[in-house]
């Protein structure tokens, strides 16, 4: 039996990159998001103005603790002595594999996930799932299982679950619910049978800014969220689903949410696929697409170099840091280029 609480019940009661030190934060009332390079997995660290933190996924296992070290570097740069919440989107190696190594290196408060692993035929998935389960069974950590519609207990940021364990929101979010013209011409996609379809996705709202992260949610579930009714509404920052894989990122989703900026946590040989890449770039009001890596896979696409954290060549572990203010304005810092681009608040 899982060791943890269902979130709804719990809420009823209440060479590594060099990160700048936390004293360089732009403003004390800012939200900071570190997009950490884990070579085609995911590790995204949110730090609210109150100092609460949420890490989304932990990268890969192995590599002598490479991904865990990079996460710890980001956490220390943000002035953290503990990661309050670690949200696991799903139980694939590039998302949950780094948990044990991170737990050895840095204090963690609570793990949040979608529940049981369902992909039992994939031995790699079963192995990392069992390792994660053993860590939870020690009893050192709190544990929550989240469902669509749940609000996560993150102080300083409103985080609402929109997909989990193969289910999506039953009703549109406040302000959403209109017809989605981007559904026209979309096809029906076959049902995915992997852990991807069970990804724990969420919308995070900070003041006027809205951020969407769906993990590796696949096209069939995107259609349930967006067609014929747009249940998500408009989004400012879109964390590109599935690293820019062909199995995710339909026009129904991307054009329906109409982002200002998209950030793709791809790797050199993973993601940046032509179809999803072009869908993002053609989004009606997109200002910029950023990539964690120059995509070097066959047929992959890339944005100009100033929007890429890690260029071609040796692995350098560079990162992107987004700093947002409550009025909806934000800026993105590229640690490789040592440049920052500012974005004005979008009218809602």
Can you walk me through this structure?
The protein has 348 residues and is α/β, with parallel strands linked by helices. The chain has one domain (27-337): Ribonuclease Z/Hydroxyacylglutathione hydrolase-like (Metallo-beta-lactamase, Chain A), CATH 3.60.15. The protein is built from eight helices and 19 strands. Strand 17 and strand 18 (330-334) form a beta hairpin. Helix 2 packs across helix 4. The protein is globular and about 50 Å long. Residues 1-17 and 21-27 have low confidence and may be disordered.
| Strand-residue proportion | 15-25%
Q: How would the global form be characterised?
A: globular
CATH architecture: 4-Layer Sandwich
Count of distinct structural domains? 1
Distance separating the two termini: 45 Å
Broad structural category: alpha/beta
Quick description:
The chain has 348 residues and is α/β, with parallel strands linked by helices. Helix content is 19%, strand content 24%.
What secondary-structure arrangement, pairings included, does this model have?
Elements (H helix, E strand, L loop, with lengths): L4 E2 H6 L18 E5 L8 E4 L5 E4 L9 H12 L5 E5 L5 H4 L2 H7 L2 E6 L9 H15 L4 E4 L5 E2 L5 E7 L2 E2 L32 E6 L2 E5 L5 H8 L10 E3 L11 H7 L3 E4 L9 H8 L6 E6 L14 E3 L9 E5 L5 E5 L4 E5 L5
Parallel strand pairs: 1-7, 4-5, 5-6, 6-7, 12-13, 13-14, 14-15, 15-16
Antiparallel strand pairs: 2-3, 2-17, 3-4, 8-9, 9-10, 9-11, 11-12, 17-18, 18-19
Helix pairs in contact: 2-4
